Amino acid sequence: MTAGEFSAADVASYDTFAFGCPSMGNEVLEEGEFQPMWDDVKGSLSGKKVGLFGSWGWGGGVWMTSWVEEASSLGINLVNDGVTCCGPADDETEANLLELGKALAA
């Protein structure tokens, strides 16, 4: 399901979520579809297991730190501190994503 197809009304149908978004612009979440969806659902994620992941190309991945801090401040049950990589996923990133999947499935 794409970010544009998902809304807070869908949250009750699931117990676990993996949200993935690349860093865009000035180290922010993608603003066209993802940020509006995130703003809509983040208040409904209490009691759900959530994992965050994404890639960046510049800026060092600061957007993930901000995203994790926001989610934590809202009391969202994060299973990780965000899996990130610069550019395409390498072997280490793929291993970290596998661990994220295991944490979400546990």
Helix content: 25-40%
Q: How many beta strands in the DSSP annotation?
A: 4
Distance between the termini: 22 Å
Strand content: 15-25%
Q: Could you say how many structural domains there are in total?
A: 1
CATH topology (fold) name: Rossmann fold
Q: Strand pairing plus helix content: what structural class? A: alpha/beta
Order of helices and strands: HEHEHEEH
What would you say the CATH architecture is? 3-Layer(aba) Sandwich
Main sheet attributes: strand count, strand direction, barrel closure: 4 strands, parallel
User: What would you report as the Rg, rounded to the nearest angstrom?
Assistant: 13 Å
Class in CATH? Alpha Beta
Overall description:
This protein has helices spanning 8-11, 34-41, 62-73, 91-105, and strands spanning 16-20, 49-56, 77-78, 83-86. The model has no long low-confidence stretch (mean pLDDT 95). It is globular, with a radius of gyration of 13 Å. It is α/β, with parallel strands linked by helices. Strands 1, 2, 3 and 4 form a four-stranded parallel beta sheet that branches. Helix 3 links the parallel strand 2 and strand 3.
